[in-house]
Structure formats: C-alpha cells, structure tokens
C-alpha cells in the first residue's frame, strides 16, 4: 500500500517495481494535483483510491488499510518518494512470520550518512526518544514508512493522528495493547538535494509531533495501565465503505 501526494517524479518506475512483486497493490492518492493524479490513472494493475482533498498521510494509510482488509490480513507499506527498495519487502514479510501478528518496521541503514537530510537525522532521534517516553517500543527508526502491518489489529488501535504523526502513534498504542513491534534492516536511497520531493515541513511537523507526544504521554500518566492495555477488539474482515470524502477510482 502506497500513499501518494504529488510525487510524480519516478513514481511510474516505482510502481512497476512494486507490481513485479506479484502482490495486489493499493495506491491512495491523497489529493494530488492533476499531473500526479493523471499519471496514477494511467497505471494498470493497481487498485487506486483517491481523497478529493489532501488529508494527510495517516488518513491515507487508514483509507488504504480499510480497502486492503477486505482482501488480506497483512499490508506492506512504502513511501512514494523512491527511498525504499521494494525488493526489501521480502525480508520484512519473513520477519513478520517469525512472530505472527507483529508490526515490522524497516530500519533504514546509513541514516547518519552525509546524503541524509539533517531534518531526517534529527527527526528520527527526536521521535525515537519520545516514542519510548510515551510507553512505546524502543525502536531505532520510528519514522520509517516501510513497514508490515497486521491489518485487523492495527485498524483496532484507534490512532487519531491524520498526518505523519499517525505512524508513531500506532507504535505507541501497539505497545500499550501488547501488539509486538519488531525491526528489520532495509536499504535507503536519498536523492541529491534539490531532486528529492518531501512534504515534511520541519517546524510545523515537529510542532505536530510535539502535540501528539504530549497527548499520548498525558494519557499514559492519567489512564490506568489496565485501561490502556485493553484487549484489541478486532474489526470485521470486510469493512463498509469509506467516508463520503473518499472515492474509489
């Protein structure tokens, strides 16, 4: 499952490599402009869903998961910016089978290299620390978008964040409820400065991260452990249609 928001550069090549994996591919167009939307409409072999307006990565993930849950119990996610090698999905899926019903996070190698944007280096350390402080798992790459999710369990976590912060909230709530979180090393490719398309806004998203972590840490302090650790209530395998703002293409 790939969330997309205005990533036309290299997207067709990425989708071709993903389709080579011979798996069903869900793409959520999160309100992209016409250039990117038209490109996606021309790709055969994908299940394409669209938000008429940009709602954020977390909202796109939830839309894709609801659609995929009708067909599978697991989803592999990767970003549309080309930093992930789709072939690494095999190792992620193998790691998932070592501990069934676990979230597996692709821990990116070489994140301290000179080609890694400073925002990514700082953001990863900032996020890792506060994920742990909020009662989440101790992971090395809490911001990686290359993951394997067990769909019924993750949909039942009720993560509220709608943008990038959804991915860290899921890790924290998974730990609260006893859902295992594992890591598997994967490669990463960062395009040279000026060529890479990123919608991460350092100050705005650091502020959003801070408000999300504040909410979760407050809940950890105020809510008894037995409340936070309530057994996952798994949703049905065939969810009903998405909200009116989401349309299937």
Write up what this structure looks like.
The protein has helices at 11-19, 34-41, 57-68, 89-98, 118-133, 151-155, 166-176, 202-222, 225-228, and strands spanning 2-4, 25-30, 46-51, 74-77, 103-108, 147-150, 181-186, 246-248. The strands form two sheets. A four-stranded mixed beta sheet has the order 1-2-3-8, sandwiched between helices. Residues 236-249 have low confidence and may be disordered. With 249 residues, the protein is α/β, with parallel strands linked by helices. α5 packs parallel to α8. The protein has one domain (2-234): Spore Coat Polysaccharide Biosynthesis Protein SpsA, Chain A. β1 (2-4), α1 and β2 form a beta-alpha-beta unit.
Per CATH, which architecture?
A: Alpha-Beta Complex
Q: In the CATH scheme, what's the topology name? A: Spore Coat Polysaccharide Biosynthesis Protein SpsA, Chain A
Low-confidence parts, pLDDT < 50 over ≥5 residues? 236-249
Placed side by side, the strands forming the largest sheet appear as: 1-2-3-8
Major sheet attributes:
4 strands, mixed
In the CATH scheme, the class would be Alpha Beta
Which structural class fits the helix and strand makeup?
alpha/beta
> What percent of residues are in strands?
15-25%
Radius of gyration, taken over Cα atoms and rounded to an integer in Å: 17 Å
Tell me the helix content.
25-40%
Order of helices and strands: EHEHEHEHEHEHHEHHE
CATH superfamily membership: Spore Coat Polysaccharide Biosynthesis Protein SpsA, Chain A
Dominant shape: globular
How confident is the prediction overall: mean pLDDT?
A: 84
Q: Count the helices. How many?
A: 9
**Total strand segments:** 8
């Amino acid at each position: 499952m790939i969330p997309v928001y205005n990533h036309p550069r290299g997207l067709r090549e990425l989708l071709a490599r993903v389709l080579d994996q011979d798996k069903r591919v869900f793409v959520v167009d999160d309100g992209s402009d016409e250039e990117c939307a038209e490109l996606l409409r021309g790709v055969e072999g994908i299940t394409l869903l669209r938000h008429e307006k940009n709602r954020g990565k977390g909202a796109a993930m939830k839309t894709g998961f609801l659609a995929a849950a009708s067909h599978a119990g697991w989803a592999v996610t990767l970003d549309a910016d080309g930093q992930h090698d789709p072939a690494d999905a095999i190792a992620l899926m193998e790691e998932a089978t070592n501990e069934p019903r676990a979230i597996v996070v692709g821990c990116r190698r070489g994140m301290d290299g000179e080609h890694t944007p400073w925002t990514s280096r700082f953001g990863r350390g900032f996020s890792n620390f506060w994920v742990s402080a909020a009662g989440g798992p101790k992971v090395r790459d809490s911001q990686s978008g290359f993951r394997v999710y067990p769909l019924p369990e993750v949909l039942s976590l009720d993560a509220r964040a709608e943008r990038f912060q959804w991915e860290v909230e899921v890790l924290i709530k998974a730990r609260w409820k006893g859902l295992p979180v594992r890591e598997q090393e994967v490669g990463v490719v960062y395009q040279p400065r000026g060529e890479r398309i990123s919608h991460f806004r350092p100050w705005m998203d650091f502020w959003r991260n801070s408000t999300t972590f504040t909410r979760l840490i407050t809940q950890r302090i105020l809510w008894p452990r037995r409340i936070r650790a309530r057994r996952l209530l798994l949703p049905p395998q065939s969810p009903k249609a998405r909200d009116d703002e989401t349309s299937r293409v």
